[in-house]
Amino acid sequence: MLVTNKHVVAGATFGRFYVHEALVNSSEKREPAPASFEIELPNFEQSWFMHPDPSVDLCVMPFEPLRRQAEILGREVFCCPLDEAFIADQQTLENLAALEDVVMVGYPIGLWDSTNNLPILRRGVTASHPATNFQGKEQGVVDMACFPGSSGSPVLILDEGVYTTPQGVSVGRRIHFLGVLFAGPMHRADGKIEIMEIPTHSVAVPVTTIPIHLGYYVKASALVSFKPFLLKAWKLDGVHGSGLASDCR
């Protein structure tokens, strides 16, 4: 599944993906080709499952339509998915510190490495404890520069080398998928503070807002809520197909 925010795809009738082709190396392992190619999908908004809770700004789309389009072009898409094992359970979250280093992968103000088709990586720290629901909602806060274009960016704890745990110092690698960025508090020029969706691109607005270096993310556990709807859609469709989302609405 592909994951992003509802407000990112709202009103979109057409979508274009830039993907890497999968190549098989000498060790029979798949790796991304240096160059990328385009895949276009019509009826874009209708291709996504919206989270059943209207207050959760999250949606998913089956990967299969992209795979099928690539197959028509005689190509195979390279992908490296985050499976459910990367979503930390509550016990694991409670064992984390309130202040953890985090990484976000995205396209702030539309910036990306278009030559190599690679996103921008950013570092920050958690601004609310990962085990708590900020303001009583299934969301958390990170202290990180979050600009237009960052919506839908995955937020992860990624430790490589030495890191601390409640039991002391550990050496190795630790990865936890915390959630998906969707909004951030903005300081208005007139002194008011508003919580605003992180837009998909920069637009001219009549009210001047200033990011305060914080971002809100939907917790990765909210993705589990899609399971019943996806299973229902798979049964209705018979096979993985591009009509999954519309069939299940």
Summarize the topology.
Elements: E1 2-4, H1 6-9, E2 14-24, E3 30-42, E4 49-50, E5 59-61, H2 64-72, H3 90-94, E6 101-106, E7 120-126, E8 139-143, E9 154-165, E10 168-188, E11 193-197, E12 209-211, E13 214-219, H4 227-237, H5 244-248
Antiparallel strand pairs: 1-5, 2-3, 4-5, 6-7, 6-9, 7-8, 8-13, 9-10, 10-11, 10-12, 10-13
Can you put this structure into words, describing what you see?
With 249 residues, the chain is mainly β. It has one domain: Trypsin-like serine proteases (Thrombin, subunit H). Helices cover 14% and strands 39% of the residues. The chain contains 5 helices and 13 strands. The strands form 3 sheets. A 6-stranded antiparallel β-barrel has the order 6-7-8-13-10-9. Strands 1-5-4 form a 3-stranded antiparallel β-sheet. It is globular. It starts with a strand and ends with a helix.
Task: Give a brief outline of the structure.
By secondary structure, the protein is mainly β.
Which sheet architecture does the biggest sheet show? 6 strands, antiparallel, barrel
Distance between termini?
A: 17 Å
Number of domains: 1
Q: Do you know the CATH architecture?
A: Beta Barrel
Please compute the radius of gyration using only Cα atoms: 19 Å
- Tally of alpha and pi helices: 5
Helix content: 10-25%
Output mean pLDDT. 85
The third-level CATH topology is Thrombin, subunit H
How are helices and strands ordered from N to C? EHEEEEHHEEEEEEEEHH
User: pLDDT below 50 for ≥5 consecutive residues: which ranges?
Assistant: 239-249
Content of β-strand: 35-45%
Class by SSE composition = mainly beta
Tell me the total number of β-strands. 13
